Structures are given as structure tokens and as C-alpha cells.
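Question thread 4412

I'm putting together a teaching handout and wanted feedback from people who do this every day. The idea is simple: show students a protein as raw sequence, then show them the C-alpha cells that encode its fold, then repeat with a second protein so they can compare. Below is the first pair exactly as I plan to print it.
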Amino acid sequence: MSLKHINPDGMFRSPAFSQGVLVDGPGRLLVVGGQNGVNADGEMVSDDLAGQTRQAMRNVLAVLKDAGATQQDVAKLNIYLAAGQDPNEGFAAAAEVWGQVPTAITVLQVGSARPGVLVEIDALAQVPGQV
């Protein structure tokens, strides 16, 4: 299984994300459901975007690890920010936990189904191994 980061000539190149990711080879698809800044008891860990983002990224990493994958196996992240939040604050906090692992991402500002939730992150990954 391999991921090829697609960054065509003439398009913006960022160390933080890829324009596309091609997943190739044997493996299993892992769909990580929306993770937010809650701990194992379901309690919100912080009132601010940075704290919630760090926890949401830790939660994504925990799901990946349990399935036998790492952030290197993630093809796509979707990041949903509560309307009015500063994406730069979220990106900085995410990088603290995620590291400099480029992947394809989409960031949207939306309303939340749960009061107080400032960020939700889901992911698509290919878990290495035989199908």
C-alpha cells in the first residue's frame, strides 16, 4: 500500500497539505467518524479552538492506531470549524499533534449539532495489509 501525494505544476504547494492523494496497493479503507475535543468520558476538554483541535487530532490518531494505521496512511481529512473561528489557530494546534504530514484536506466553517463544539475532524485512511 502506498500513498502518492499529487501536487500538479501550476498549483499552490503547501508543506501542510496535498492537493490530492492517490491510494494504491492492497489494504483496507478506514473511515474515521467525526472527532471533536472530548475525552474518554465524553467531556469537552477545552472552551477554545486550540484545545479542542489538539484533542480531536489525538482522537483521530487513536482510531488510526487501533486499526493499525498512522497519519502517514491518511488520504483525506475533513475539518469542520464552528462559524467565526480562526482557521490559523486550528491549523497551529493541529500541527502540534499531527506533525508535518501533508494530506488532502477540506476546511469548512459550519454550525455544530452540539453546543460548545468548535471543531470536528474526520478522516479517510488506507490501513496497510492484505485485503
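The second pair follows. I'd like the answer to focus on this one:
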Amino acid sequence: MHHGSCLCGAVSFAVTAAPQGPSVCHCGQCRKQSGHLWASAYVAMADLSISGTVKWYAASATAKRGFCPSCGSFLFWKAHAEDTMSFALGALDGPTGITVEKHIFVADKGDYYDIADGVPQKD
């Protein structure tokens, strides 16, 4: 089990299953909302419990982004057509044992940094 929270602690969450697809997203939306890039993994909705009020932003016609309305921490990403939810790896407490498997949307990454960790990259 993993636990996480926003910066101020008003929103917390628990993950009761093994996180899937740990990745780092370099898309323009994640860069703008996080200020750089966004590392996440996903689980089935049934394996994620959230406490506190989450503010949802409809980032596109296909997905929404969840954040703390008090401190602004970007915590969740949910595709409307899927029964899974992505959560921010950076919001997890303590050691996680999770290893990033891939970088995604690297064609959209900022020009001010390089990706040099040897993890597979997808345009």
C-alpha cells in the first residue's frame, strides 16, 4: 500500500494495489500545470481512495486533472473513458520501491533540459 498527499495535507490518498505504468510525462499540459514534468503511475479506480476535496479541471475533451484547491498540488489525471486513475509519484510518502518505466510525449518536452537516464522514450 502507498499513501500520498498534497503539499498542505488537505487532500490525501491511498493506493491499495501495485501501481502500473510508472512514467514521466513531458507533454505541454503537464509541463504547464506542474512547472516542469509530471511523474505518475495508475491503478484501477477501486484501488485508489481519496480523502479531502479535489478540484477537477477538464484539460481536454478526453481527460481531467485533479488538484488540491488549497495549495494547488497537481495530484491526479483521469481519462473519461478509462476505469483507472493516474496519481502523482511525487506526492507519495516515504520510499516507494517504484521505478519509472518510460518517458512519454518527449516530442513535446521543453528545450531547456535533456533526458539522459536511459529509460525508454516515446514521442
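Top answer:
Good format. For the second protein you could add a caption like this: The chain has one domain: 2-108. The mean pLDDT is 97.
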